[in-house]
Amino acid sequence: MAAVLEVEDLVVRFETHQGTVRAVNGLSMSLQPGETLGVVGESGSGKSVASLALLGLVPNPPGVVEAKRLKVAGQDLLGLDRRGLQQLRGKEIAMIFQDPMTSLNPLLTVERQLTEVLERHEGLTRREARKRAAAALSDVGIPAPETRLDSYPHQLSGGMRQRVMIAMALLCNPKVLVADEPTTALDVTIQAQVLELLKDLQRRHGTALLLITHDLGVVAGMADRLHVMYAGRVVEAGPAADVLTSPLHPYTQGLLRSVPRIRGPLGARLDAIDGSPPDLAALPAGCSFAARCGLRTDACTKSPPPLVPVLAGRRSACLEAEALLLRSGVKA
Amino acid sequence: MSEPILAVRDLVKRFPVGRSGIFGAPRQFVEAVAGVSFDLQPSQSLGLVGESGCGKSTTARAIAGLLQPTSGSVRLGGAELVGLSRRQMLPHRRRMQMVFQDPYASLDPRQSVESILTEPLTIHRIGRPRDRRLRALELLEDVGLSPKHLSRYPHEFSGGQRQRIGIARALALEPDVILLDEPVSALDVSIQAQVLNLLIDLQARYGQSYLFIAHDLAVVRHLCQRVAVMYLGRVVEIADRETLFSSPQHPYTRALLSAVPEPDPHLERTRQRIVLGGDVPSPMHPPTGCAFHPRCPDVARVPDGRCARERPLLLPLADPGRGPASRACHLPHEPPARGGLGAHGPGPGAVSSAP
């Protein structure tokens, strides 16, 4: 099947007074129809900036987006002008953001937020669009959709607003849905509802989902494949279940160890990663994680290790990946 | 068990809403905290957990005296705090300090670290300026920062470092109790672990008690020996960590624990999850009877619609497991041995994906 999203060597940098901030440094990924790719990383890892680049939403200036290839549903994003981008957004690729309160327009009713997309992309009349909007709300499990159409965002709860955002994103049945921390602002019981909804919608519509999150628990239940990002680079990639059970990069290992769990044995202290992420305006010459890494050798500080295959389907950007593989006991 | 360092009884905080005109009488009240009671033992940590709007932060603020409680009692080391004037409160305030969620907003950007750390000492007239400076250096070392940080300003620090400064400020007066309101929620996972370890180490060294407010149950499990779960202004269950996490007795606690996703793909894809329908009701219009009954998966197991009519009291459980435990629920009590996380399938009212 043809990939609905193809990214090769994506670079996003920002020219600032403090110098060049390198937010994304050579990101490559592809997404098949119906697939879920999880992208995990902490603040400053570049995961959100990368997702904005996929929709042509990085402001220029100060942002500069470069890539060998950046294709959505077969169309080259880099060659498109403003108008072409607008044609693509909403129709082929759509996005849901973390905070549904600031990403919905507070001055428009739910109906107006939804019908605007339909009128723009599909040229529907007001009446037809209202009907479609009501159907979309009921599709995301909002009760009494007809009455909800007349509500304003502030009249809805956080979970309800995120459902409206999802309905809006899926209106034109896009091939790719980018979800940037879609449940981070929600309470845990509401998060469970929204994740179930996303899974269900994806099954029914065959949408490819790019799920960006800091929460390893969320990707564990949702993602088919996983990219782990650190300081603008993918440091590990592979099937989600394998990466989470036998990580092949010291950063992934450290991250998994530092997450407090609600089940299992309880140590007196947590296994934290010492230090903090590097300054993106002054990245080290070698591996960005070297300063915090227990496996560091001299070679690590020379040049950034490339993301290379270690096992079938598994890649790691660590010079010690082979040693980690041996220690993990996973068969090559 | 020893005398609690902090004893809270029937704490109520009511806010007026919807005044008729600026000076008019309030038309309505919202009860953010509706009768909360618990004990905090010396050198122990109690976690107060719940979702947004459950009243956990308001409870902490009312205890700290940042908000005037409407009624109830807060006793710190045996001394009653409710009803004291600002002046009368001052000597007690020394014994109880607070750390806030947002390390960006809770430090004054115009104050140097030295000034932030010595201010509590100045207010309470402790030591001479020279001693205060030495104490500030000591505090920096305690929280893993270096002497060179003393002359810097908050904007020069990362989020994790700022939270360390917030903790150092709370430690300055050697308090008996520190109230921590979501102290690690704004931090990245790897930094969060560092700050939690720091809190654990500091408690081992100085023996202060923590009242730890959080929505993240996993974080609470790592730090707190006892846990109280709140829903719509009330404690619905309180128990020792082992008991609460291995055999939760309130249907809301069970749902809350079951909703937490864990970075274990096999567990995440196989376990039965209780997905609650609906939203947390507004505290402006709390449901009748048990506030949780409209979302409760087990509501049909209690006969005669009792849950909708009669509010269950927080009562001690006869067979609580390790430590004393209480629960506010009409369901028959199931002894802890049988239960356990994941063993509870969704009840008859549970839905897999509901509005």
Supply database-style keywords.
heterodimer; A: 332 residues; alpha/beta; Rossmann fold; 2 domains; 8-stranded mixed beta sheet; globular; B: 355 residues
N-to-C span of chain B: 45 Å
Low-confidence stretches of chain A: none
Oligomerization status of the protein chains:
heterodimer
- The CATH H-level superfamily of the largest domain in chain A is P-loop containing nucleotide triphosphate hydrolases
Order of strands across the main sheet of chain B: 6-7-8-3-9-10-12-11
**What is the percentage of strand-forming residues of chain A?**
15-25%
Task: Explain the layout of strands and helices.
The complex is a heterodimer of chains A (332) and B (355).
Chain A: E1 5-16, E2 19-31, E3 36-40, H1 47-54, E4 63-66, E5 69-72, E6 75-76, H2 82-88, E7 93-96, H3 100-103, H4 110-122, H5 126-139, H6 145-148, H7 158-170, E8 176-180, H8 188-205, E9 208-213, H9 216-222, E10 225-230, E11 233-239, H10 240-245, H11 250-258, E12 308-311, E13 314-316, H12 321-328
Parallel strand pairs in A: 3-9, 3-10, 7-8, 8-9
Antiparallel strand pairs in A: 1-2, 1-4, 1-5, 5-6, 10-11, 11-13, 12-13
Chain B: E1 6-19, E2 26-40, E3 45-49, H1 56-64, E4 71-76, E5 79-80, H2 86-93, E6 96-99, H3 113-123, H4 129-142, H5 159-171, E7 177-181, H6 189-206, E8 209-214, H7 217-223, E9 226-231, E10 234-240, H8 241-246, H9 251-259, H10 265-270, H11 306-309, E11 315-316, E12 326-327
Parallel strand pairs in B: 3-8, 3-9, 6-7, 7-8
Antiparallel strand pairs in B: 1-2, 1-4, 4-5, 9-10, 10-12, 11-12
Helix pairs in contact in B: 3-4, 4-5, 5-6
Give a brief outline of the structure:
Chain A is an alpha/beta fold and 332 residues long. In chain A, 33% of the residues lie in helices and 23% in strands.
Describe this structure in words.
- The complex is a heterodimer of chains A (332) and B (355).
- Chain A is 33% helix and 23% strand.
- With 332 residues, chain A is of the alpha/beta class.
- Chain A folds into 2 domains: 5-223, P-loop containing nucleotide triphosphate hydrolases (Rossmann fold, 3-Layer(aba) Sandwich); 249-261 and 272-328, no CATH class.
- Chain B is built from 11 helices and 12 strands.
- Chain B has helices at 56-64, 86-93, 113-123, 129-142, 159-171, 189-206, 217-223, 241-246, 251-259, 265-270, 306-309, and strands at 6-19, 26-40, 45-49, 71-76, 79-80, 96-99, 177-181, 209-214, 226-231, 234-240, 315-316, 326-327.
- In chain B, the strands form 2 sheets. Chain B has an 8-stranded mixed beta sheet with strand order 6-7-8-3-9-10-12-11, sandwiched between helices.
- At the A-B interface, helix 7, helix 8, helix 9, helix 10 and helix 11 of A face helix 6, helix 7, helix 9 and helix 10 of B.
